[in-house]
Amino acid sequence: MPTALPLSEQPPQARAGIPAALPPALDYPRTSPPAPGEAVEIAPRVLWLRMPLPFALDHINLWLLADADDAFTLVDCGFGDLPTRALWERHFATTLAARPIRRIIATHCHPDHVGNAAWLAARFDAPVAMTHAEYLTAHAMAGQHSGYTIAATIGLFRRHGMAADALADLEKRGNAYRRGVPELPLSFDRLLDGDTRAAGDTTWRIVEGHGHSPEHASLHSAERGVLISGDMLLPKISTNVSVWPAEPDGNPLARFLDSLTAFERLPADTLVLPSHGLPFRGIALRVAQLRAHHEARLGELDDAVRASDAPLCAAELVPMLFPRELDVHQRFFAMGETIAHLNHLWHASRLDRHVAADGTLRFATPGRA
What is the mean pLDDT of the chain? Predict the structure, then answer.
C-alpha cells in the first residue's frame, strides 16, 4: 500500500497560472540536510533528523520537539527496517542523550511515518497520537482487510486496464506495507482537526488534510511561525494522490486541492518543515504551484481523451503523466494517481466513464462514448 513516495513530475516552474504578486522562488534557510545520525536545530526547540528510505525517494525528515524538562515529542518515526533502527540507536545515545521521548505523533499511516511507532512507543512507554482514520487505515493495510488487500488492489488496477504481467508483479511483491511496518500500536491518542498539543515549549494546532491519506495531520505553531507539513506540502515534488480499492469511485484529488486552502491562509513567512526535501518559506507560492501542476495534468489527460478515436483506460494514459521507465513500486503509485486524475475529470463531467465489453473502465469525451 502507499508509502509517501510522490511520483508526479515536478510542478511547472513557468509562471502560468501563478499570481504575479507571489515571489519568484521558494526560500530555503538551509541548503543541505543533517548528516545520518546527526540533528540540526531548524527552529527554536525543533530538531531535524533525516532517515533513509529503500525507494527512489530515499529519505524522510523527522522532527524532535524539545521541552524545557529535557523530554521530547517526536513527529513521525521512519521506515521500520534495520538501517533506520540502527540510526535511531545512535540518536538515543547522542541526540537524546538518555532523555525520553514523551509522546509520538504520526502525521499519517504510511510506512515511513508510522513504521517505528510501536517500537519507539514500547521503548519509551510513550503514547502514539494519530487521527482516527489514519490509525484504522494503518491496521487495515497491515492486516489486509476492509478493502485494503493486495487482491482488491489488483482487481481495481485490472478494471482500469493494467496488463497481466504488471498485475503479476504486484501480486509477487506481496504485502509491502508490512515490510515497513512490522508492528503497530494497539491504542492511540486521537487527533482531530483544530486540536492543540503542547510540545517544544509552544502550542501546535492540528491542520487536517485529505487526498494523500485519509486524515493527514499537519502541525502549526502560530507562536513560532512553523508548520510541520508532513506530506501535504513538499518543496520539489508533488504529493502522491491516488484512488485505492476501498473507495474506487472516490475523488481524492478534489479533497487534496480543497485541503490546500487551509495552508495558503497561513502567514507568508511561515517556515514549512516537510517530510521530504528541504525546509522552506513561500507557502502561498508552493500552493499555487501545486494547483497549477494538477490543472496542467488534468488538461493533458482531457486533451488526450478528446484526441483519441476510442475511449481510453487509465493504464493507457499512465505514460502521459509518467513518461519514464517505472519499477513495480513506482508503477503502483503511478496507476493510482492516474485513476485519481481521471476520476476527478469524471466527477466534474469533463469526461464520461463507461464499462467496456471486456469489463475495463474507459473514459471518453462526453457524448462520444
Answer: 94
pTM confidence score: 0.94
Beta strands in 239-366 (DSSP E): 271-274, 352-355, 361-364
> CB–CB of 235/271 below 8 Å?
no
- What letters, b where the CB count within 10 A reaches 16 and e where it falls short, cover 190-215? ebeeebebebbebebebbbbbbbbbb
In angstroms, what CA-CA distances link 97 with 41, 105, 199? Answer: 15, 21, 19
Residue 64, beta-bridge partner list: 47, 74
For the chain, domains (ranges, CATH) are 40-364 (3.60.15.10)
- Cβ(343)–Cβ(211) below 8 Å: no
Q: Phi, psi at residue 140, to the nearest 5°? A: -65, -40
- For residue 7, pLDDT over 50 is answered with no
Look up residue 318 and give its three cell numbers.
499512465
Average pLDDT score over residue span 182-205: 98
Predicted confidence at residue 5, as pLDDT, reads: 37
pLDDT at 15 over 60: no
Question: Is-contact 130 190, C-beta < 8 A?
Answer: yes
**Alpha-carbon distances, residue 57 vs 3, 53, 223, 275, 286 (angstroms):** 10, 7, 32, 11, 20
Give strand pairing partners of 221. Answer: 226
In angstroms, the CA 78 to CA 111 distance is 7
Those residues with Cβ within 8 angstroms of residue 306's Cβ, 6 or more apart along the chain or in another chain: 365
Specify which residues 189 forms β-bridges with: 129
Rounded distance between C-alpha atoms, residue 13 and residue 324, angstroms = 20
Mean pLDDT of 4-29: 66
> Cell digits for 354?
463507461
> For residue 144, is pLDDT > 60?
yes
**Residue 79 clears pLDDT 50, i.e. is over it:** yes
Rounded mean pLDDT of 152-176?
A: 96
Torsion angle in degrees (nearest 10) through CA of 154, 160, 165, 168: 0
